[in-house]
Amino acid sequence: MDLSLTEGQEMLRKSARDFLATECPKELVREMAKDEIGFPRELWKRMTEMGWMGLFIPEEYGGIGARFLDLVVLLEEMGRACLPGPFFSTVVLGGLSILEAGNEEQKRELLPRLAQGNLVLTLALIEPNGTYTADGIQVKVAKKGGNFSIQGMKLFVPDAHISDCIICATRTKESEPPEERITLFLVNSKASGLHWTLLKTIAGDKQCQVAFDDVKVLGKDILGEIDEGWPILEKVLEKATIARCAEMVGGAKQVLEMTVNYAKERKQFDRPIGSFQTIQHYCANMATEVDACFLTTYEAAWRLSQGLPATREVSIAKAYVSGKFRQIVTLAHQIHGAIGFTEDHDLPLYFKRAKTWEYTLGDSLFHLDKIVRSMGI
Do the beta carbons of residue 212 and residue 193 sit within 8 Å? Predict the structure, then answer.
């Protein structure tokens, strides 16, 4: 296993960092946190021109055909920049679902539009029970003639308010084990009976409550096979979890750089605070945790990119990175002192994301349980 980046990945990293430093300043991030849409359309267009929407899409569908590991490199830079907008929901949650389970007709209809930046997707999975397990999916779907009707509520659906299509996880019938009888549907976001409510979030990211009130869907809108949705979700959620870890790694690296620079410049008692042993050890601890977050994330990403089993490695990464990103930002706050708590400072942007991302796609306890099960305990 070689975790060093290829020449192409280094070029992708550099171009993404330069682009986001110019096009996504922190003033824009703060502005978009208060904006109902949550991202500027012009930035989305420029990202499309960079080829990012189609990075992971095969060439036959209008994409670049890069590997999953390349997408992880890009997402790390997005996490570093606190990029707002529906890239994660569209490319990661939506695009990976279609690539994993879509039939040829669905791929030819949707993937070129995604690559061209003309399609916003999202995944409706979580319900009021708040779990990422199969038994948490209780939204009902009933067959009506040759079509189907969806009834129920989803929570924390990212970017549903601006989406064109929602991939909805439904249950056709109560079953034991609960992994059976789950079906994914492609639902038009403007369908009659579908209503969304924008939720207020700590980080200003756009998450919605989505109600399905007798929403009609056609048989051709099934993603994959009927009653066979859970294995698809497991594969998509593994990659999405590592994609989120990559964003946290990028954020953690940026926080470390900000803090080390501050420790070198800020003076107390006529000397830089970085000359004090306690501050030095704080910075050393942060650097240690950042490297560990990077290595666990990229090991899992490499395995997924190679098509190898990675369930245990994914959970190890998420269980570790979830908590450590928050701890890294907490240490940064201690070093910065009062200035780091002001809204004009960049540090709160990362702390809010650390708290939000800690619980999305399963918190540390959820993934520790998965690791235990993988060991047969």
Answer: yes
What is the DSSP pairing of strand 140-144 with strand 147-158?
Answer: antiparallel
Identify the three-state secondary structure at position 171: strand
Q: What is the DSSP letter of 199?
A: P
Helix axes 311-336, 229-265, angle to 10 degrees: 30
Give the H/E segment covering residue 192.
none
Alpha-carbon separation of residue 349 from 200, 269, 342, 345 (angstroms): 16, 30, 10, 8
> Are 331 and 352 a contacting pair, CB within 8 Å?
no
Cα separation of 230 and 180, whole Å? Answer: 7
Dist CA 287 CA 301 (whole Å): 21
Name the 3-class secondary structure at 143. strand
Q: Check residue 152 and report its DSSP letter.
A: E
User: For 40-67, what is each residue's pLDDT tens digit?
Assistant: 999 999 999 999 999 999 999 999 999 9
The Cα 68–Cα 302 span in angstroms is 8
197-249 pLDDT, tens digit per residue, is 999 999 999 999 999 999 999 999 999 999 999 999 999 999 999 999 999 99
Residue 305 to residue 113: CA distance in whole angstroms: 24
User: If DSSP codes are grouped into helix, strand and coil, which group holds residue 217?
Assistant: strand
Q: Is 175 exposed, middle or buried (0-12, 13-18, 19+ CB in 10 A)?
A: middle
CA atoms within 13 A on the CB side of 33: 19
* Residue 363 burial by Cβ neighbours in a 10 Å radius (0-12, 13-18, 19+): middle
| Six token digits for residue 260 | 């080390």
Model's pTM, two decimal places?
Answer: 0.96
125-159: b (≥16 Cβ within 10 Å) or e: bbbeeeebebebbebebeeeeeebbbebbbbbbbb
Please spell the DSSP secondary structure of 63-118, one letter per residue.
Answer: S----HHHHHHHHHHHHHHT--SSHIIIIIIIIHHHHHH--HHHHHHHHHHHHTT-
